[in-house]
Amino acid sequence: MSNGKTKTDVILIGTGIMSATLGTLLKELVPEWEITVFEKLENAGEESSNEWNNAGTGHAALCELNYTVEKPDGSIDINKAIKINEQFQVSMQFWAYLVKSKLINNPQDFIMPLPHMSMVQGEKNIAFLKKRFEALSNNPLFKGMEFSDNPEKLMEWIPLIMQNRPLNDPIAATKIDSGTDVNFGALTCMLFDHLKNKNVDIKYKHSVDNIKRTSDGSWELKVRNDSGNVERHTAKFVFIGGGGGSLHLLQKSGIPEGKHIGGFPVSGIFMVCNNPEVIAQHHGKVYGKAKVGAPPMSVPHLDTRYIDNKKSLLFGPFAGFSPKFLKTGSMFDLVTSVKPNNVLTMLAAGAKEMSLTKYLIQQVMLSKEQRMEELREFIPNAKSEDWDLVVAGQRVQVIKDTAEGGKGTLQFGTEVITAADGSIAALLGASPGASTAVHVMLEIIKKCFPQHMNEWEPKIKEMISSYGVSLMENPELLHEIHTSTAETLALSEKELVYS
Ligand SMILES: Cc1cc2nc3c(=O)[nH]c(=O)nc-3n(C[C@H](O)[C@H](O)[C@H](O)COP(=O)(O)OP(=O)(O)OC[C@H]3O[C@@H](n4cnc5c(N)ncnc54)[C@H](O)[C@@H]3O)c2cc1C
């Protein structure tokens, strides 16, 4: 390096779970490649990946009702649930590989076993839950799921929710014990510690301001360092893992694949319980049903969480609106993301999504007491003084033109954008998010390095034995993987320690 200039093989922008995962995968596949990471904040995992900024659900579609929709003929479509479950198994296998190879330690610092439950009220919703249970419980991926509408059984499963509830309130739940609570913030930090040991150069307080193509097809980044000076860094491959900050950087790269795409920020608020007696009465993640008009990411849930090796209880997230794209972002983020190439897409989405905008604004205006009323649908006698509000992370939902939805369609999933020559990739969107980081980063590797895939596949299969295989169709392999990941990640023993 001279005069703040470097040349490297790979640059990762951002120190969230996505860059952490891609960096770790690449270091296993090609240890000799040089990797540099730029992060504008002081530490890793401070934005969406931080444990307080997301819900920590290991999304395997065990409890999230929005992954199984009722079709017009009344049957339940479980395809999305299968896809998400299979993707989560990929993450679990990679994490188990890292622990087994001693590249990271103490899995209990980032993953804990926790029953996942879905809870609904009212006859119509109960009929839906029962049909969903019947559709899923025959599938090997969802083995062990139970359904009950018996108040005594429910009292055993969810005492805090059942106590003080009128007996004639129809209520039902499903429960599956193979769910997890994942501390993505802790995992992100562990992965960056590991990368540092592997000589990855991680530069904190370095903000990437611009990205441009050089004449030899590499990418040059303009980076503002901690002293406010500008540095130039070049790499053959760049991953834009800036979370909510990725859209602006993608636009700056000028690649055609990044055009006609917009972003819509949705903020989140959790309620956190400060009363140890209440916290001790709940054990699980209990997902409810989204209210009419609510976006899928604001489905209310009452979650046991393990943060700093302590049991906590969180409810939410309540959605809200802020024009910032990152929690530490700018009030101008939304306005400056509108460009001549995406203005029509954004306007079309604005016209289509008036009801969502109205919903989000209503959510922002809720008083603490109104939020308590929503919580009381879960805990009938919840007391206001037992609960505090915490601001969660920002999500930037992708807006793009699609064949099915037409111009300006709001997307709720994760979008990978790569240049045609595979020299740059960006990750946009936020759901199912961190849980599927390994699958999504493997997709990026496949798209951006097709010339290396034959050589890398054996190593990928060593790390993730289900790579390229449907686990649903291979119940024996699924069983083997479940048993070995549970053992390596110590997912059956910890309740003794923490309850
Ligand atoms: C309320 C909420 C609940 C969620 N719940 C879950 C859940 O239960 N389970 C789940 O799996 N997922 C969940 N998610 C999604 C999950 O948190 C995200 O998908 C994931 O953390 C995104 O990781 P990332 O690495 O892309 O981004 P981030 O973690 O946001 O990291 C991006 C990093 O890039 C840095 N950066 C940005 N711009 C620049 C720049 N120009 N220069 C240098 N650095 C830059 C930022 O400072 C940040 O550190 C939730 C998200 C939210 C907001």
TrEMBL record:
One record GO biological process: tricarboxylic acid cycle
EC numbers: 1.1.5.4
Cofactor dependence: FAD
Pfam families: Mqo
Record keyword Oxidoreductase present: yes
Major enzyme class: oxidoreductase
Record keywords, A-Z: FAD, Flavoprotein, Oxidoreductase, Tricarboxylic acid cycle
Residues spanning the signal sequence: none
Coiled-coil ranges per UniProt: none
MF annotations from Gene Ontology: (S)-2-hydroxyglutarate dehydrogenase activity; L-malate dehydrogenase (quinone) activity
Alphabetized InterPro entries for the sequence: FAD/NAD-bd_sf, MQO
Catalytic activity: (S)-malate + a quinone = a quinol + oxaloacetate
Biological pathway: Carbohydrate metabolism; tricarboxylic acid cycle; oxaloacetate from (S)-malate (quinone route): step 1/1
Family, as annotated: Belongs to the MQO family.
Name by which UniProt lists this protein: Probable malate:quinone oxidoreductase
Organism the protein comes from: Domibacillus aminovorans
Gene: mqo
